[in-house]
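Researcher: Next entry in the queue.
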Amino acid sequence: MDWGMQNRLSQLIQSDGHCFFLPIDHGYFQGPTSCLEKPGETIRPLLPYCDALFVTRGILRSAVDPGKTKPIILRVSGATSVVGKDLANESITTSIDEIIRLNATAVGISIFVGSDYERESLTNLSDLVNRCETYGIPVMAVTAVGKELEKRDARYLALASRIAAELGARVVKTYWCKEFDRVVTGCPVPVVMAGGPKCETELEVMEFVHDGMQKGAAGINLGRNVWQNPHPVAMMRALRAIIHENHTAKEAWDMFNSLKSEEKA
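Model: Structure for this entry, 265 residues:
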């Protein structure tokens, strides 16, 4: 692995081998998401606790302070929406020149294994890897499932994650599931967990994050369960304690409640 690639990956995955990415790219397919209407204001208090920001170029330019940010994972696939016929029919939306111009540390692209657009999305990934490897820029593949949430089982996610790694992704973002160790064991590159839809309780989030970390995940790429929480900073800090300080779910839960109480005081 060349120096540039190693350097960029080291900015994303910390010296303990773990990472906490904060995604705010949801608007690229669902518009002004709740609590993300003004993304710059949403992320300002959260940036100190994340390791990288997953964002589109439009929001990066308009809402992220270039002097006060973290490493950028640039969302470079899209061109579909929640009101369209099929979320899986994505294209690469950002050129390699733009990726370099924006000084992205890495790029992220969705793949839709098993969909009607499987070949197109996997070809998008392969083409992006070919372009980015030339410049030492890591590609993170996102094993998206569109609206078909029932696909979130170990067999499917292990398949999708391994294919992404086989095609050259340096990092894979996928969903936590039962038997998550099957997903991690079968994937030769770091696996980060997506948050998915907002969970019912904070403890539920902490439990799946802790379980995934114990089963070999490198970290999380989790947004809605942080910035849609009434106490986003407390949530962020508690999850970071699981990722980087090896806290249990119960310890993180206690930490969250303590920080929440301090906010009210």
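Model: The longest strand covers residues 106-111.
Researcher: Noted, moving on.
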